[in-house]
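Here is the promised in-class demo. Please do not try to memorize the tokens; focus on the logic of going from shape to residues.
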């Protein structure tokens, strides 16, 4: 079996100075029976809780708090599994890299489907954002293999910051409900756009922008190389 190729992790996130000590503390105080695989399963469970919260929010918007709880559970499992493995020095690089990204893709599909089932974001906008996220994920994985750089953040934003944005969005959903903005359009008349569609659509735009910009510049750099 070939050895796992070492890569450089790039995690330059806004909340890093707060998150890293918190994860280290949690890893140091985690019960012995808890292992990284259990934490990975906890992360997947959190995404299912988020799906349920969003799906049920159509009947009662208080269920957005359940979706928020799901984000916290997902953060706990997804962020801590690798930290715990490194803290206990029980890393399995090939297995860990594989399972981490397979489950991450599954969790994102679950979360965005749930968001699209809510009364706040249309399904089309949620799926477009999911496409942008998965495209950026593919770019990260390809870069890891080709140039040995595993980038987990863009513009100081990583998965933790995205979860925080989602939690803030959930809070406004609960207190203000579904709201829309009306734009006057020439020859067509006024058109209404939901504020959460606008927010999530902006995130989709940024994801596609990061993907296209990084892919273009990385491709140009690789084109200069000679095999």
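The designed amino acids, position by position:
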């Amino acid at each position: 079996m070939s050895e796992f190729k070492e890569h450089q992790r790039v995690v330059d996130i806004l909340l890093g100075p707060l998150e890293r000590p918190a994860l280290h503390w949690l890893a140091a105080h985690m019960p012995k029976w808890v292992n990284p695989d259990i934490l990975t399963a906890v992360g997947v469970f959190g995404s299912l809780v988020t799906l349920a919260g969003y799906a049920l929010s159509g009947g009662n918007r208080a269920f957005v708090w359940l979706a928020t709880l799901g984000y916290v559970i997902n953060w706990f499992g997804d962020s801590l599994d690798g930290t715990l493995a490194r803290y206990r020095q029980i890393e399995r690089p090939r297995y860990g890299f594989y399972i981490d990204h397979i489950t991450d893709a599954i969790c994102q599909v679950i979360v965005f489907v749930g968001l699209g089932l809510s009364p706040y974001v249309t399904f089309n906008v949620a799926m477009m954002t999911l496409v942008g996220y998965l495209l950026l994920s593919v770019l990260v994985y390809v870069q890891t293999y080709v140039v040995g750089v595993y980038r987990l953040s863009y513009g100081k934003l990583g998965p933790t910051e995205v979860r925080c944005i989602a939690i803030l969005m959930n809070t406004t959903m609960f207190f203000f409900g579904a709201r829309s903005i009306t734009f006057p359009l020439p020859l067509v008349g006024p058109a209404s756009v939901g504020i959460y569609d606008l927010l999530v659509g902006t995130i989709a735009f940024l994801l596609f922008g990061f993907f296209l910009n990084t892919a273009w510049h990385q491709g140009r750099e690789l084109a200069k190389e000679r095999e």
